[in-house]
Amino acid sequence: MAVQDAGVPRLAGGGSGFSVLNDQRVRGVLFQVLLVIGVVSFAWWLISNTAANLRDQGIEFGFGILWNTAGFSINQTLIEYQENSTYGRVYIVGLLNTLLVAALGVVLATVLGFIVGIARLSNNWIIARAATVYIEVLRNLPLLLQIFIWYFAVLRLLPAKREALDMGPFGLLNIAGWYAPSPVLGEGFWLVVVALLLAILGCFAISSWARKRLAATGQPFPVFLASVGLIVAALVVSLILVALIWGKPLTLEYPTLGNFGPRGGARLFPELMGLLLALSTYTASFIAEIVRAGILAVSKGQTEASYSLGLRSGPTLRLVIIPQAMRVIIPPLTSQYLNLTKNSSLAVAIAYPDLVSVFAGTALNQTGRAVEFILITMATYLMISLITSLFMNWYNARMALVER
Amino acid sequence: MADTSATDLSYVRTEMEPDAPRPRHDTGIVGWLRQNLFSSWTNTLLTLLGAWVIWIVVPPLIQFALIDAVWTGENRQACTTIAQGGVLPDGWFGACWPYVGDYFAQFVYGRYPFDARWRVDIVFVLFAIGLIPMLIPSAPFKRENIIYMAVIFPVAALLLLTGGHFYYGDFGPTDLLLESLRNSEWVQHNLGAEFLATVRSVQLFLAKDVQIGDALRLNHGFLADFALVTVVASLLASAWALSTGSSVVGMLRVIAITMGGIAVLLLVLAYDFGLSHVETDVWGGLLVTLVIAVTGIAASLPLGILLALGRRSNMPIVRAVCVAFIEFWRGVPLITVLFMSSVMLPLFLPEGVTFDKLLRALIGVALFSAAYMAEVVRGGLQAISKGQYEGADAVGLTYWQKTRLIILPQALTLVIPGIVNTFIGLFKDTTLVLIIGLFDFLGQMQSSFTDPTWASPVQATTAYLFAAIVYWVFCFAMSRYSIFTERRLSTGHKH
């Protein structure tokens, strides 16, 4: 018997035999219950501490503060804002300024990033090297330092307030900003806008018709050229029409240099310029690497196969390489856009009036309502991130390789 | 047999004609230029464009940093033009290096007291001693090295930088227990005044200190708390071991080793080695940058590993908690996290508990980078083939054995480049702490602008140039290292 006993493996552990705690599912449930208790009690501890501290300081938690008068001015506002506007309006002004710099930054960074990324793969030695140096330098410097360099070192080299650098058709530039020519819309300009919208709709129609025709008959149609032609034609015709009926459809108001510096035109503040330059050149260095990786990820066999099917180099690039490269490029590209948006919060360092600067900065310091203002700011950035990731998931699902 | 003269092949060469040299325009410098710069007219155009870009960027930079730069001087006069009150000709624009030389010590140590700066130097040396062999893949004693970096170095650094001689006040479970005992109605009714008085006297005794030798002062309450935690942990561990049938002695040994180790570390930190106390307010410069970056990465690694494991767990609640944590920190900018830790963290804590500014920033940075680290580690966990998990399960390892012995060693090796990249990001992001009023390397520079001794129009530009060089050297070296590990790891994996 003893011999037999030794041969039988025990089911669980050591001497005392089987216990429910050795069941993985029971352990899982137990552990999760403990985790929930831990998280909830930790949260409760934080909240009760905060409540007690706020009570001691005589602050009542609530978002009613958003309807109080702010009483400070903001230099760059996209919507109407006065000193007697509310903190809620400060929030909107800040958010719009954040979105403005993010949108402009995304466009600039994408253009620059694609140029540098492709340049790095160029056969031209000097171009490839210059692109490499650009990427390695910009990527390895803190963004905040770059913002400081642009704002406190480079832009400070511009002429003083009463003088200006004349850039001809681009307006005037000095230390107080860029005075760009501002468009003054003439009477009847709406017609041009309508024509442009119609032309864009027409482009969609052409492309869908061309796709159907390609599927049905195999005959390709130059969609791109046709679209460009349609838009140009719509613009030209509508402009001429407006000019004939109402007179000048659009005039540019140029800034002039007065005794006290440039006047007129649309002024771009130096804070915005510095932030925009730093953000877009910095992000471009990351985008360039993404673009390079994307292009290199498409195997050479794809090009060769495409040539052997008889496609020329143009269609090969357009129909074979780029769609596959974009599948690799787009996900990290979106996260770079998101990074750019989050990084725009560094605006606070040079007092560009973005969300963090005016809302979580000036307004918070004025009211001392840290909890509400920080919560709202964080929630806003979280929303932007979540919306972007939702878009990314949708895009990935759409673009994922369909394997049969 | 055929006539041999008809097969006379003497007109055929017996040896090969030597290769003709490559065409002149295809070799040497000319050939290289033709191939790489001027192969077509578009290429020529691009070359000219590139040369133009280099021409507008590089010469002015060299002019500013080297040719027109001032190398010696006592004060602002050396670096200003006559119109600005200095000695240089009007229109001069160059770097002012004596300013950087004058401030160099402050850029490294901040306002750390002069006579204690050797302690910072020792910390830097200790760090290098631990780091360099760790970075070299073939260096021996990796295990000892990791223990040094994870335990010995942090304690030594904390001791040297702050001066040690910590005093642990009663953090309270024992006191809390006695207090609630005293206040409980049941006790008041049934045990009487004498018992209450005893409890009270115990409390008073716990509030006192015990002096061991000259250099060690410990609070009774703290000792009681430590004992209480040890006893409770031992009881829980024993109960767990008994109910699951695993070895009680083994469990208790683990507890004893852990608590003993903690006790030794706490005693070392409490011991007065005669070092003067240095408040974190006066830390600054590169010291603060490195402290934040290194602590951030060191704290975020274990937390990030736990979060990554949690995110891949089968338990839905664990997964949900981890995903929520990770996505929250990744969704907000670091600057809002720093604002939160500087203005909201004091509100989160019970009254009377305060953290200094540096520690608050460290907590924010650690939580923030833990989320990014979790995603890096998750990448490593996903890259390991399913067979490894299944193999570990098949030989009967428990979850933690499997994770510790099979999965993590492979996953963490795979993600070393990712960890280094996260560290580069963190190192660059430490500059943000200047916005909440800490003086890191860049912040120390910003603050030096207020000193009238060196105030000049070129001061900021010089400082930023210097900062750029320093940051770039650090980050570029790290990114090269990351690429080096990536190459080393990728051999054999690529098809």
How would you characterize this protein structure?
- The complex is a heterodimer of chains A (404) and B (495).
- Chain A has 404 residues and is an alpha+beta fold.
- In chain A, 66% of the residues lie in helices and 6% in strands.
- In chain A, the strands form three sheets. In chain A, strands 1-2-3-8 form a four-stranded antiparallel beta sheet. A two-stranded antiparallel sheet of chain A has the order 4-5. In chain A, strands 6-7 form a two-stranded antiparallel ribbon.
- The longest helix of chain A has 34 residues, at 24-57.
- Chain A starts with a helix and ends in a 5-residue tail after the last helix.
- With 495 residues, chain B is mostly helical.
- Helix content of chain B is 67%, strand content 2%.
- Chain B has 19 helices and two strands.
- Chain B has helices spanning 28-36, 41-67, 97-109, 117-135, 142-162, 173-183, 185-190, 192-207, 220-244, 248-270, 285-311, 316-331, 334-348, 357-383, 386-394, 399-414, 416-429, 441-448, 459-490; strands at residues 209-212, 216-219.
- Chain B is flat, with a radius of gyration of 33 Å.
- Classes of the chains: A alpha+beta (404), B mainly alpha (495).
- Chains A and B meet through α2, α4, α5, α11 and α12 of A and α2, α9, α12, α13 and α17 of B.
